[in-house]
Design the sequence.
């Protein structure tokens, strides 16, 4: 068996500037991302999250620095890019920017066929992912008749059918109703349990605090902070610089400890529900 | 167009094999046009209405309304065939206009009516296809017929994005209206221009992201997709073959007369 590297994706001082822009979208970003981890990317609009993601599977080629997948530098040749994109899949923020076919089945079959598998296998894979993600009830509807949440599920299926090792989700919960947000989050949770590495851009501090193994805080194309949720969210200066509030549960917990209601010895709670349970004893 | 698309997705004949419906449409269309008798047109018309409305479950009122659109064009163009302006009154009808007559002969009136019926029957053929077969499946059939890939890919993308374009446009128009952008003629013109340019910019941006998203899924210049095929039923194939043979018989008979 192939030796598994600890880092699935590494960025070594990558910089990227969009054509016609003065400012660097990414400015010497160095990150090591661990295999099988749940990593949240936070930061305001224009902080470089999306640009970083596009660099991760070779859509954008950093002008400086290099990207390593599984310990090997990405080669910007046809074959090298194919390999990178097979391993690293991106679910785009806006499903309407991603779905190109009006038919759900055709849409999902696109990625897997591009990997060069035969039709029979592709058909089975597509059917399987349709079942797994619960797309069956609306599979026969045209893309323009799907709701935002349904389109999102198809967009995720688009990528999962290719069996990536790293799944990048660019603000997956943005503009979803609570029901679909829950569905999407439970799907992501399931994938993470299967061992996929998940990179997720999000603005939801409370959710991230409970969900992530690790948070990367980006600001103006630079890494402001990388660490566990408690380290990053506890860094008030960095959080303020990134225009983020601290998680509600963290603020509440700190006050409760100050007032002597909770003892500082116990590990801080991760969710509001957790905190509720502790207070009610 | 949107109405047809919506109805089509509701049709009970939607899950019938697409090639089967396509072949039926094309053969019937050819035979209907080749025939010289009004009877063929009448049969084609009735059978298509029966299939689309009774079998497909398209509401009759909706269908009738859809038929009225081409019917209006047909009436306008066939009147031109039936009516003559001449100094001598002809046998069918004649309205005096000073020294001239607005007049027509029985044979020209009959020819006009026959043509009108034939054209309307041909329209029902096309309505049958577009009201029972979804666009993506028609494209699948075209692919089997070896229509160039580029044409099919373009059709597929256009079909998908025409809806997005209209959605965006209507969102812009609503937001303009809510800011009194259609108050008078001048603002209306300005608002329309604004909408058009906003649409262009957004479309360009969207096409850029779409291309990125496709590249992220290993796109290499050819849109490879699978189509879903439902098996053709033998019974249906026999029915179609029998019906087309009957039509062929009628056509030959109409030519021999």
Sequence:
């Amino acid at each position: 068996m192939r030796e598994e590297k600890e880092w699935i994706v590494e960025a070594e001082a990558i910089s990227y500037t969009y054509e016609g822009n003065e400012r660097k979208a990414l400015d010497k970003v160095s990150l090591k991302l661990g295999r099988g981890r749940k990593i949240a990317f936070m930061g305001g609009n224009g902080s470089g999250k999306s640009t970083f993601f596009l660099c991760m599977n070779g859509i954008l080629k950093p002008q400086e620095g290099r990207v390593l997948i599984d310990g090997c530098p990405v080669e910007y040749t046809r074959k090298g890019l194919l390999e990178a994109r097979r391993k690293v899949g991106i679910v785009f923020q806006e499903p309407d920017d991603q779905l190109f076919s009006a038919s759900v089945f055709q849409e999902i079959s696109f990625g897997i066929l591009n990997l060069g598998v035969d039709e029979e296998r592709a058909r089975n894979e597509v059917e399987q992912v349709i079942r797994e993600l619960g797309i069956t009830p609306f599979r026969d509807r045209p893309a323009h008749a799907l709701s935002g949440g349904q389109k999102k599920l198809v967009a995720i299926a688009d990528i999962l059918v290719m069996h990536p090792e790293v799944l990048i989700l660019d603000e997956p919960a943005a503009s979803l109703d609570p029901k679909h947000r829950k569905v999407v989050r439970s799907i992501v949770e399931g994938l993470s349990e299967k061992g996929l590495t998940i990179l997720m851009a999000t603005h939801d501090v409370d959710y991230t605090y409970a969900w992530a193994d690790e948070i990367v805080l980006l600001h103006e194309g630079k890494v402001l902070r990388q660490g566990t949720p408690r380290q990053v969210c506890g860094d008030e200066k960095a959080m303020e610089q990134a225009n983020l509030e601290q998680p509600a549960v963290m603020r509440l917990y700190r006050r409760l400890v100050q007032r002597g209601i909770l003892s500082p010895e116990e590990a801080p709670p991760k969710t509001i529900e957790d905190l509720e349970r502790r207070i009610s004893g | 167009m949107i109405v047809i698309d919506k109805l089509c997705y509701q049709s009970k004949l939607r899950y019938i094999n697409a090639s089967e419906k396509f072949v039926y449409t094309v053969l019937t269309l050819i035979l209907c046009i080749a025939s010289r008798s009004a009877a063929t047109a009448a049969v084609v018309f009735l059978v298509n209405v029966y299939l689309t409305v009774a079998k497909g479950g398209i509401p009759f009122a909706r269908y009738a309304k859809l038929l009225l659109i081409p019917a209006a064009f047909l009436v306008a163009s066939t009147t031109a065939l039936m009516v003559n302006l001449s100094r001598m009154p002809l046998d069918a009808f004649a309205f005096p206009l000073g020294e001239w007559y607005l007049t027509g002969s029985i044979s020209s009136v009959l020819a006009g009516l026959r043509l009108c019926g034939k054209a309307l029957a041909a329209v029902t053929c096309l309505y049958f296809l577009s009201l029972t077969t979804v666009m993506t499946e028609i494209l699948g059939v075209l692919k089997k017929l070896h229509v160039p890939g580029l044409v099919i890919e373009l059709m597929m993308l256009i079909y998908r994005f025409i809806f997005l374009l209209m959605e965006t446009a209507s969102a812009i128009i609503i937001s303009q209206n809510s800011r009194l952008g259609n108050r008078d003629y001048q603002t209306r013109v300005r608002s329309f221009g604004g909408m058009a340019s906003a649409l262009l910019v957004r479309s360009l941006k969207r096409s850029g992201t779409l291309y990125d998203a496709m590249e992220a899924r290993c796109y290499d210049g050819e849109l490879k997709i699978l189509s879903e095929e439902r098996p053709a039923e033998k019974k249906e194939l026999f029915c179609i073959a029998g019906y087309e043979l009957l039509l062929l018989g009628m056509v030959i008979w109409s030519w021999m007369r």
The first helix of chain A runs from residue 49 to 56.
